[in-house]
Amino acid sequence: MHFLAWAALISAATFSPLPAAASAAILASAFIADYYLESELPKIFLSRKSPSSINARVVPLCPALKRRYFPSFWFANSHLQTVTGSWLRHTPKLKFRREILNLDDGGAIYLDWGVPDRHKVSPTAPIIVVLHGLTGGSHETYVRNIMLEAEQHGWQSVAFNFRGASDSVLHTPMSYNAGQTHDLRSLLKHIGKTHPDVPLYAIGYSLGANILVKYLGEEGARTPLKAAVAVSSVHNLHEANKFMKEPLRNMFYGSIMTSGLKRFALRHKAVLSQSGVVDYDNFHQIRSVPDFDEFVTRRLFGYATVEDYYSDASSDRLLHNVGVPLLLLSALDDPIIPAAAIPYDAPERNPNVLLVTTNSGGHVAFMTDNNLLHFRKSLMDDVAMQYFTAVAQLQESD
Predict the structure, then answer these.
(1) Residue 250 and residue 244: Cα distance in Å, rounded?
(2) What is the pTM of this model?
(3) Residues forming the active site
(4) Residue 106 region, left (φ>0) first, then alpha (ψ -120 to 50), else beta?
């Protein structure tokens, strides 16, 4: 139910001549009815021109796509989903083995490899590369939860910390952005050398999802990845920026993202200042993500304008060239990425693309757990692992 409708209902109940118990019962009934009405089967968008494509054969093998999605009863609202999925979700304590990959330009990326029980996970098991979101890293709960799911399914995983992300050191005055795919390309080449003949998969979240999709569109069928999943991808930075300009949305989500970006730039000030282009003198003027992109991002990466950066970094323009199975998972109530940015036409233009949308789920959340003492379960983990497993089975049989 729309927020304003709920507000009207609560006001009516508050000032109703009915007894308090009766008003409370009406509100509770409305909430439960709304919860069940909003819950429905995920909407699946496939290419009608290619009914025998691998994605068409994968869908029946993914139980999570064939049953109604019920978000966490306690946090069904999109904002509550997003906040609790990020701040209250249980974060598994995983063992990591850190590897520093030195790049050809003098920079470095930090890889945190999951250290699974070798009695359960073979060293030749498939590897999932995990790409985090804006100012994220291997410490994020969604990164650690998908790595735990991978281990429980007998798969290996590695968290790809972007340059300077998490607790990593920035080696050169070059960080990362929403469309920088060079480092992912270098990472996959490196893993291909150190783990020959091991199947590679990848999953990205939010900004990391956009990077992953853009990379896939640039590489086409040349990528070593067998399949990929993009959760809550930005898709189109122009649409996302327009959406975030709404005052209340920018006041909450925009300020959180802007603060994170400023902390990142200030933490690496000694190195980034060496670029000679970052405007730290006017750093106090940064009050939004576009401001940060003007004073930092577009200058570091040589874009003439922020608009040029957004156009170049948007991944939706390259979906037609994706050469391996790709699942896009988006919630229609995502408070950060608008539904207008979802590329509904992508599956028709490219049968390698499978689009799945849900009415609710928020941003990088999709929480389903009702156990507040161990709040962990999420639809996005179930969908990703079922998709990867099904693709692997079909590709092996083909």
Answers:
(1) 5
(2) 0.91
(3) 206, 334, 363
(4) left
